[in-house]
Structures are given as C-alpha cells and as structure tokens.
Design a protein that fits this description.
265 residues; alpha/beta; TIM Barrel; single chain; 11 helices; 9-stranded parallel sheet
Length: 265
Amino acid sequence: MTLSPHAQFVALHDTDVPLLLPNAWDAASARLWQEAGATAIATSSAAVAWALGYADGGRLPREELLGSLRGILRVVSVPVTVDAEDGYSDDPHAVAELAREIAGAGAVGVNLEDGGGAPMLLVDKIRAIRESGGAAPLFVNARTDVYLRGMASGDEAIAMTVERLTAYRDAGADGGFVPGLSSAEDAAKIVAAVPGLAINVMAMPGLASIDALAQAGVRRISAGPAFFRSAYGNAQASVKAWLGGDFAPSFANALDYARLNALFP
C-alpha cells in the first residue's frame, strides 16, 4: 500500500537516524534539493521572505507565502513542510485558517514558533489548529527559542525548554523544534523529559555529530536559512568579480542549462 505524503513524512521521523531536512525558498531550490536526494523538504521563513523581498520576522504577506508554497508543490513529489513563523497573527483562529490553507495546498506540515514569548499563545494556536480539523492531516512542529535567544542557560534552559515543549505536545504538537541547541547531552535530557514529541534541532557550527544526536533520540535536523545564505553569498562574490572584469567565477560549479530546464514542467 502506498503511503500518503503525510504518512511518509511521519514515518521519516521513526528511523534509526534523524531526518535530514534541507530548507528551500522557492520552486527551483526545492526541486534541486529533491534531485540531490532529499526525502522531504522544509521551507525557511527567512529565506522565503528574503527571496520575495521582505525582511524576516512576520513581514511576509500570507498570500505571498501561499503563492511560493504552491510553486514548490508544483515541482516536487516529496513531502513538504512549511515554516510559518508565528502564523502571521496573534489570533489562534486566523493561524488555524492559515494552517488549513497550507494543508489544502498539499503541504504535510507546519512549523510554528513562540519567538521566546509567552508559551500559552502558541498553545492556543496549536489547539485551534487541532480543533479546526480540516480535510488533510498536518504535522505540527512547535518551535521554542529558549536556546536561540539565550533566554536561559545550563539546567535552567533545559527546564524551560521542557516546560514549553510539554505544553505544546499536550496541545497537539507532533514535533518540538529547539534551534540553538547543540549539545547531544542536553538534547537527550529534553527527549527523555518530553516523550511522544519528535525533537528537531538546527544545523549550526558546534552541533553534535549526527551519531551522537541519534543516540540522544533527536528525530530531525534542519538547515534553516543556511543554504540561502551560502548560495547568495557565493553569487554576490561572483558578481563582484564579474563587475571587476573576472568572469571565471560566474561559471564555476554552474549547473547545466538543459538539465535545469528539464526539471520543470
């Protein structure tokens, strides 16, 4: 029996190694990540916003988010999950409506964050999503910024993270995203304290090895805006060289035109 995209995505969180989830920002990057071997793709809120000419941090109009998502879903066949920041609203019902639109477009998951604010607001948003139902199931990944924003350190950071993730799990979240968490030892403590929640970390300098994170019980590792920053950093350097009369860098590591063109229907 063929699994639905949502069921495929859920199953990818139940393997011996964490799901490596690259973040895309448009149809081209998403299709190239699939061609590279990605079994699922996430969007990066920052990268999508930047690609469309908006700052990160809730500035992206929801219509543009959904338009970008539809372009991605048109060209890929692997499961796609969407970074929706805080849901672009403090109204839980508005966030639930956005989640329904995301699922209705064909995505299998949504990432929602507390931004380091009061956890009860995210609890209410998750509950609203679950209570609203909808025709398509949705993997809700709840992000807490305790580590990313340096809200606490040591055992206090672990305790604060566990408290928030427990509340999000009890509200109906499937996963818990802890960007900024790099220690496998701390990750193991969080995993053990919040059973039933798939713990997700973000790749960053100093992150523990994949083997160590797998032993800790981490189920997913995402890239955030790293690929966007790398791609555009290299592109800007090539343009600077080109404007200075050095054309060679613009042809380095270039993808074949015919191969690229054939990727898109």
